[in-house]
Specification:
Layout: E1 3-9, E2 15-18, H1 19-23, E3 30-31, E4 44-47, H2 48-55, E5 63-68, E6 73-78, H3 81-86, E7 88-93, E8 96-97, E9 107-109, E10 132-136, H4 148-156
Parallel strand pairs: 1-10
Antiparallel strand pairs: 1-2, 3-4, 4-7, 5-6, 5-10, 7-8, 7-9
This protein binds ligand MTE and molybdenum atom.
Ligand MTE is lined by residues 68, 71, 73, 116, 123-124, 126-129, 151, 154.
């Protein structure tokens, strides 16, 4: 079975999970219906908090970098309580792995993100095609658009 998500960097226990592995993660970190927590987002997820508890970052003030190799996109955000308490990684939809059309292999979502380019936790931080989470001491790779032209170019790929 293919690996959906790797978590590495400054962690005591790096992980590489298949769909089956993610389905077997502890029930208390599973979100069977993400729409109940985050309206308009469908699928089965696990909490970012739960993932972090499993991999055990080795420092207190870390950065979380979300990598999407499918389109070579990354976003790096500080591990603050808002993102840790509310972030969800969606990994399945209707019993199967999340398809690429829905942002698979996995997709990171936070509730109520700010508009793109207005804050650290913006819509651009809702990384699609997520396949690696990296924990670092400083800001990691971040390819989010820095101006409206770059942002518009990203959205051109949506159609
Ligand atoms: N891998 C990847 N993730 C991405 C993007 C992207 O181009 N590649 N675009 C971002 C931007 S700019 C937005 S607004 C949201 C759009 O996702 P949505 O249509 O599901 O809300 O995805 C974000 N995540
Ligand atoms: Mo966006």
């Amino acid at each position: 079975m293919a690996t959906l998500l790797t978590i590495d960097g400054l962690v005591a226990s790096p992980q590489a999970w298949t769909l089956q592995d993610m389905q077997s993660l502890p029930p208390e970190i599973q979100i069977p219906d993400v729409s109940e927590k985050i309206p308009d987002r469908k699928g089965v997820g696990v909490t970012l908090q739960g993932i972090l508890n499993l991999v055990k970052p080795t420092i207190d003030d870390f950065w979380i970098t979300f990598h999407a190799s499918h389109d070579d996109f990354s976003s790096s955000i500080p591990a603050d309580p808002t993102v840790i308490d509310t972030g969800v990684v969606i990994y399945a939809l209707e019993g199967a792995a999340l398809p690429v059309e829905k942002g698979g292999p996995t997709r990171f979502v936070i509730p109520n993100p700010a508009a793109c380019q207005t804050a650290e936790l913006d819509e651009c931080a809702n990384v699609k095609f997520l396949d690696r989470i990296e924990i670092t001491a400083e800001r990691g790779r971040d390819t989010r658009p820095t101006n409206e032209d770059e942002h518009a170019a990203l959205h051109d790929h949506d159609h």
